Amino acid sequence: MNRHPIGVACVALASSLGPRCVAAQTKVVNDSIHAGKTLFTYRDAWLAVGFVGLSVAMFPADRYFATKLQDSSTQANHFLKDASKDIQFIADPGAIFIGVGMYGVGRVARWKDVADLGLHGTEAVAIAGATTYIIKGAAGRARPYVSADTSPHDFKFWRGFGKGGYQSFPSGHSTAAFAAAAVVTSESQRWWPHGIWLVGPVMYGGATLVGVSRMYNNAHWASDVALGAAIGTFTGIKVVRYSHGHTNNFIDRTLLGLQVIRAPDGSVGLGWSLSQ
């Protein structure tokens, strides 16, 4: 029985990334968003080693997945082509639009948790995106579409800056998607701690689809997606952990304290609340 290459790629990435991402969200003593004074722990170091090891381990499989996903029968599927573009847009730039929108709605309607989620999601995507951009430029890895015989091992230090065809490693869309997934999962752990095993797989599953869509469009290798997932997940978790462990930090104090105020005469203005 033949397996569809999209399904194979999704299962492979989900089975590799999913358990690590959800495990990174699980509350453990002295290492959770509920006790976030300590930003980095030994457990984080092991998770980082695991993600990096996964990315390296996927190098030999890069060509396999690229060949399967670029098969003529797979590429001829118009539904997959259209869906892949929509999925990518939701991740980038959609994640920023959604985050800013949620922050704005939360501020106007005074829904603190919504504003909190929107702000931290936007922060995570921005920080993860900047990190990814630097690594892309420094690694200078050729994208699969550069030529018919592009090698997954075609790296050249510093070549990626200013050259889109050599910004493959890691995947920026995957970074954004996993950063958003990590923030939503982390924040929902505060509101609904018993729901992490539902929220986590849904959010990270959607992020995995983003990564596969980039591979389907021949823009990234599988290992690009793996490293993007690692950067996004770590950034999302750390932004939430730091923000709730240091509630008086400048960004939260300034932006979450900002409120829309209606004066007695009916006019509307902006003001700051000293308490969140």
In short:
With 276 residues, the protein is mainly α. Helices cover 66% and strands 4% of the residues.
Task: Write structural notes for this entry.
This protein has helices at 5-25, 42-57, 59-69, 72-75, 78-91, 94-109, 112-139, 172-191, 196-216, 222-245, 250-255; strands at residues 258-262, 268-272. It has 276 residues and is mainly alpha-helical. A two-stranded antiparallel sheet has the order 1-2. Strand 1 (258-262) and strand 2 (268-272) form a beta hairpin. The longest helix has 28 residues, at 112-139. The chain is globular, with a radius of gyration of 20 Å.
Shape: globular
How would you state the average pLDDT, rounded?
84
User: Regions with pLDDT < 50 over 5+ consecutive residues?
Assistant: 28-35
Helix content: 55-70%
- Architecture of the largest domain, CATH level 2? Up-down Bundle
Helical stretch count? 11
Pick out its properties.
mainly alpha; 11 helices; 4% strand; two-stranded antiparallel sheet; Vanadium-containing Chloroperoxidase, domain 1
Give the helices and strands, then pairings:
Blueprint: H1 5-25, H2 42-57, H3 59-69, H4 72-75, H5 78-91, H6 94-109, H7 112-139, H8 172-191, H9 196-216, H10 222-245, H11 250-255, E1 258-262, E2 268-272
Antiparallel strand pairs: 1-2
